[in-house]
Amino acid sequence: MTFSRVLTGGSLLALASRCFAVPVVSEATTTFTSIPTATPSQVPNTNVTSHGPYTGTPTTTGALSTDVLAPSVAPLPAEEFKFEYPADGKLHAPEPAPYTPAGGLGTNGTLPVYRPISDFDYESLALALYQEWIELDLFHWGLAKFSVQDFEDAGLTAEDRSLLEFMADQEVGHATLLTNILGAEAPVQCTYNYPVNTVREYIDFCQKLTRFGESGVYGFLNHLDSRESAQLLLQSISTEARQQMIFRQFEGLFPMPVWFEIGIPQSWAWTLLAPYISSCPADQTRLIWQNMPSLNILNQPNPARIDGSDVWNETTGGYTNTLSTEDIKPNEDCLNSNVTGENCSPAITHNRTNPLSYPGRQVFLSWDEPGQAVGPNNSYVSSTSACAPLYAAWVSQLNVTYTPLQNISGNTAFTIQPNMSTFQGDPAVNGTIFLALTDMEVPVTPFNLTMINPHVVALGMYQAG
Ligand SMILES: *[C@@H]1O[C@H](CO)[C@@H](O)[C@H](O)[C@H]1NC(C)=O
Ligand SMILES: *[C@@H]1O[C@H](CO)[C@@H](O)[C@H](O)[C@H]1NC(C)=O
Ligand SMILES: *[C@@H]1O[C@H](CO)[C@@H](O)[C@H](O)[C@H]1NC(C)=O
Ligand SMILES: *[C@@H]1O[C@H](CO)[C@@H](O)[C@H](O)[C@H]1NC(C)=O
Ligand SMILES: *[C@@H]1O[C@H](CO)[C@@H](O)[C@H](O)[C@H]1NC(C)=O
Ligand SMILES: *[C@@H]1O[C@H](CO)[C@@H](O)[C@H](O)[C@H]1NC(C)=O
Ligand SMILES: *[C@@H]1O[C@H](CO)[C@@H](O)[C@H](O)[C@H]1NC(C)=O
Ligand SMILES: *[C@@H]1O[C@H](CO)[C@@H](O)[C@H](O)[C@H]1NC(C)=O
Ligand SMILES: *[C@@H]1O[C@H](CO)[C@@H](O)[C@H](O)[C@H]1NC(C)=O
Ligand SMILES: *[C@@H]1O[C@H](CO)[C@@H](O)[C@H](O)[C@H]1NC(C)=O
Ligand SMILES: *[C@@H]1O[C@H](CO)[C@@H](O)[C@H](O)[C@H]1NC(C)=O
């Protein structure tokens, strides 16, 4: 009170002159003791020593399930009350307290409870924990697997490697947080199998893995029953979003070529994550989510090339469709160019003279049949409830747009990259996006994207920019 009166009473100049006599302490002269507060311990974790595919026989198969009430969730009309609030900038109810507008969830003084309160919450948070665990391992693994020289050859310095190590440490925190929320049966660390042989393949894989990790959480965050858990998860996924952008910068890409980041359904995140888990401990908590068949982008743009869209069959496999450096000739490699617009060494940002993809680009696709063993201990089975594929669904920013599949022959077809903008000046298809094959054009928007799932035939990631 007194302080604010001083500020309004005198001019800033008067305040400054009154302060003039006060000795200015610009340096701390004494170090006082600062007793640390109690620090919560980390969840048990190890630097996983074994990597590679699973070769055993699964002792259990299929996603976790219980009684299933219907083949899909039926659409319902919007709730009328949501149209009633006038939204005119005026107040329409008494204030519960000063400076406190009426409404909101979890704002009435009840104590927060940071735990799942439904199957939806538990399964979503457990999925997020599987994701944090793979990131923890992946970031450490890269540092252990590749030599200093390998990193230097890709333009990544000792300081960059420290940043990578710090990102791994962040994952310990995220895994600890989610384990504490979930309780005793929380999924634990597994062993993994990564589709990479070089540092640049590794960075591309990290960039794509953090993309579906981040987008996977955005897809369910606002549907969680436990608002309290959502709050904590939001604060961890914001960190993950930064990691994704840093991997783009490590890769020499434009850091954020979109105005909005995508949210995807949980089953999409699980579909893209599970193939890289080789095995989990016997009593591991299993998940409910669907594993969809892989969509392979035959001319997936390759960011390691000067002309990244002029490419054929240059990925290290389906699902994430990450880049392969194997067949790139030195004069085609963007690391070797020092021309602005071509050079792709790690940087805050780069322009690309030759865009990785563009509207009107012909995109060649092939897809796997369902019924394949996938995920930890090969104990999940890929499935689809859709009919034959007819469309490619481009899921980017706030939009889902369908383009027809053409020349469908067996499990191959092509389609044309659509020309659309989210808002004027923001081409929708850019960055690392999601491409799904569907049997119909399901109208969906960010909050009901999951309604597309019964119509998805196959799923992959597309490197649009
Ligand atoms: C894992 O390895 C990193 C070095 O890459 C080290 O800093 C960290 O302490 C190790 N973690 C564990 C749990 O051993
Ligand atoms: C407080 O708000 C919650 C919803 O956020 C509601 O479920 C609960 O009944 C409210 N409690 C009281 C005492 O009004
Ligand atoms: C999965 O494989 C691991 C390693 O072989 C094994 O320890 C574990 O018991 C297996 N889990 C299941 C559910 O079969
Ligand atoms: C892509 O290349 C792999 C080998 O690298 C080969 O097995 C596969 O048949 C090729 N696919 C196409 C569609 O060219
Ligand atoms: C690019 O590299 C060439 C040969 O390596 C050199 O002659 C040229 O000066 C370099 N240009 C720039 C802008 O650094
Ligand atoms: C980079 O791209 C932007 C937008 O396309 C363009 O305005 C800018 O001039 C480019 N900068 C350089 C240095 O090429
Ligand atoms: C994607 O974004 C980059 C960076 O702003 C831009 O140069 C490129 O033209 C965009 N691509 C498309 C297809 O709009
Ligand atoms: C995309 O749409 C814009 C605006 O309608 C148009 O100028 C441009 O030529 C279109 N691009 C292609 C490849 O059709
Ligand atoms: C599509 O199929 C038609 C008829 O078989 C063929 O003439 C055409 O070349 C095909 N187009 C592409 C791009 O493969
Ligand atoms: C993309 O999403 C925005 C925001 O919801 C919407 O206004 C726009 O119409 C959508 N554009 C297309 C082509 O679907
Ligand atoms: C999803 O929501 C949009 C409105 O945002 C609606 O037009 C569409 O029909 C809904 N889709 C389904 C499958 O319910």
From TrEMBL:
Residues 52-62 have a biased composition (Low complexity). Keywords: Signal. Residues 1-21 form the signal peptide. This is Rds1 protein. Residues 35-62 are annotated as: Disordered. InterPro entries: Rds1. The lineage of its organism: Eukaryota, Fungi, Dikarya, Ascomycota, Pezizomycotina.
